[in-house]
Amino acid sequence: MRKPTRVLTTALFAGLLLAGPVLAEDLNDPEEILTARHGYMLLMANQLAPLGAMAKGDAPYDAAAAAKAAASLAALASVDTSMLWIAGTETGALEDSDMLPEAVSDSAGRDTRFAELKTAAETLAAAAGTDQDSLKAAMGGVGAACGACHKAYRKAD
After folding, report:
1. Which residues contact 64 (CB under 8 A, 6 or more apart)?
2. Whole-number Cα distances in Å, 59 to 48, 55, 85, 116
3. For all residues of the chain together, what is the average pLDDT?
4. What's domain 30-153's architecture?
């Protein structure tokens, strides 16, 4: 390794070591966690929107697009989001939060609901690229899983 590369590598490594505690603090900031949770939900909605439109007939059925969106949704549903549901990020604690305190206190129930979403999303991923009727049938399970979680853990509008 040439000297300039070693110096750059050493500087980068030292910078990461010094930045570690700062990054860890940011990961515990309730506002940052809320932003991450909102981002996660927006990513899921971004995949669900075209699937829902195709299932309802509001958009033409596109097998490739449906398969891609459903696979992305299944990947998102399999992500460990436990760090997004912490005390201090619920409604009342933060202005833009719709999360009820039960999302924190009932972690077992929340985990069960996320497992149901994961299963429903995987079923959707298997069905989405076949035909519109299969897509429509599989969307019901995803809608039920989303609705169950929102009913239990999200402030009513």
Report:
1. 129
2. 13, 8, 34, 27
3. 88
4. Up-down Bundle (1.20)
